[in-house]
Amino acid sequence: TMKNPVPQAASLLLEKLLLLVHVRPLPEGSGEEEPPTPGYYDTSCFKRGDLLEVPRTLFIHFGIYLGENRVAHLMPDILPALTGDRRQIQRVVTNKRLILGVITKTASIRVDTVEDFAYGGSILVNHMDRLFQDQVLGSEEAARRAEKLVGATAYSLLWNNCEHFVTYCRYGAPVSFQTDKFCETVKMIIRDQRSVLASVLVGLASIVCLGLAPSTTLPTIFIPFFLWMAG
Question: Is 162 a catalytic residue?
């Protein structure tokens, strides 16, 4: 028997959304997961201005190494919109803070230890340099760009996520290959004429990601519907 394409498409879309949002699934029966203890990573091989990349199951998180076990990285976070207390903001971002930050399109470019940034994941160094070849800026320039941007910032899954931040700092152009993959998934789903529900889910997900406004609501609901009808 043929499998129902609706759950498959919805599951695939959810997976890509999690990939871009950087939600970390928590172990069952536990609270927020704790980062490794200081000294877990050997930072002697990192240089100021390096682009650090932490592959996860569903996403990749990016940061710029600033030296002395410090990493600048962009994280969705609701707290900067609610308080100016740096001590509260500097605490490790919980999943609740992160998700609310995505919904309200609020984020911060923060500086954390390598342990807090990577959460036990393996770290790749300057792995994206091969994709940009001669566009790589000097290491000090990359670090200075990152430092200048530290603080509250707008957040967008499609236009301003952690990958946009690091590619701007190290290569001079904000791009996101994860966003490209997400958009390809959306196109694949809305072109699947077997799944009306999946098309509706795409529209609703787009509203959550891009904001509730006539300019986003009407296109995200009606365009998938008409594409399905025309398919």
Answer: yes
Phi/psi at 110 (5° precision): -120, 165
Give the tens place of pLDDT for each residue, 51-97.
999 987 667 899 999 999 999 999 999 999 898 888 888 888 888 89
Residue of 45, 162, 169, 209 marked catalytic: 162
Amino acid occupying residue 154: A
Query: Do residues 116 and 123 make contact, with C-beta atoms less than 8 angstroms apart?
Result: no
Residue where the block lists tokens 């509260």: 88
* pTM for this predicted structure: 0.70
Residue 201: pLDDT band with limits 50, 70, 90: low
Query: 41-49: long-range contacts at Cβ-Cβ below 8 A with a sequence spacing of 24 or more?
Result: 41/114, 41/115, 41/118, 41/123, 43/69, 43/114, 45/125, 46/114, 46/125, 47/139, 48/139, 48/140, 48/143, 49/138, 49/139, 49/140, 49/141, 49/142, 49/143, 49/170
Element at 153 (helix H, strand E) = strand 151-154
